[in-house]
Amino acid sequence: MNLAVFISGKGSNLKALLEAQKEAYFSSKIKLVVSNKNAEGLNYAKEFGIETFISKNEEDILGKLKEKKIDLIVLAGYLPKVGKTLIDQYRIINIHPSLLPKFGGKGCYGIHVHEKVFEAGEDVSGVTVHWVNEKLDDGATILQRQVDINDCKSPQEIADKVLKEEHVILKNAIKILEEEK
To answer: Which residues are catalytically annotated?
Structure first.
């Protein structure tokens, strides 16, 4: 499969996918990295010789995806809500830093998720890779992993622990989708 990875920030999940691709962990190829802004994570794409594209316009993005013959979009810390234009034309997965359906939806991204988990006094958090539909964090689950957070003393400690699992689960999800194809 030809992959486009969408990011908005530091790109640590993108980096993990690029390293997995380099090690031939999966056979898919990352052909494009898309961002809504000049995100720090775009530097990883450049290091690996992957084309980058910055735009907030879905029609422009759609044109670039078609040009690169993309089969699957991977949202890896992409903050804008994906519109109907892309959802109707592409298979799209997202990685979310909680055990959906808990701690998902509007305002639940990045450290905000972990703050809510911490405030709720949860013993377990986790990661979910799911299909994207028109509702936020609502699509069918592809893969989900729990992370024991009993020893975490802050939302940042939860975030750090969960992120390590994100780097594993996302490449595993791609491998599963390859096997299903």
So the answer is: 96
